[in-house]
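User: Predict the complex with molybdenum atom.
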Amino acid sequence: MAHGFPVLTVGPTPVVPPEQYRLKVVAADGTTARTWTLAELKALPAQRLTTDIHCVTRWSKLDTTWEGVPVDVLLEGVPPAPFLTAEAYGDYTTNLATDDVVGGRGWVVWGYDGAPLTPEHGGPVRLLVPHLYFWKSAKWLSRLVLRERDHPGFWERAGYHHRGDPWREQRYDTD
Ligand SMILES: Nc1nc2c(c(=O)[nH]1)N[C@H]1C(S)=C(S)[C@@H](COP(=O)(O)O)O[C@H]1N2
Ligand SMILES: [Mo]
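Assistant: Here is the predicted structure with molybdenum atom placed in the model:
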């Protein structure tokens, strides 16, 4: 609990040396549109944001501070598509509507609380979508894959909600 909030990970923490880290954006036709190294990501117009986060197991943490880049910046020039899958090093996936991560509502972050994001919390780089349940915020983010149709990810295939809005308590697919 180095960051003062619980670690929730399926399986072992993948080891991703920062110098080997890559983020790819894949267009809906399957072609890799863009690739960034960590240094290239950090050279983009970064933002600091303070926000609350909500885990589906009913903990929340208020006023967490992150540093990263809005997903909008990463999708610039990429043909738009209504859905995307966030894929992580180590096989975790989660699906999102593109509208939930653009418009300044989703970030790709490398900093937490003024320091580099630690490996157990998703370092070098994770997704941060604070208005949805935290399982949507994939740690060790490797690819954002745009899609014409919604493809359920790891928890969504296991019966969790496809969108996961904590204010509507969208925990399970029956909610
Ligand atoms: N790659 C990956 N990302 C993940 C998870 C995971 O198991 N693997 N767990 C999710 C869940 S359920 C939660 S609550 C948060 C936990 O983030 P934390 O460990 O930084 O608290 O990460 C989310 N992102
Ligand atoms: Mo979670």
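The two ends are 30 Å apart (CA to CA).
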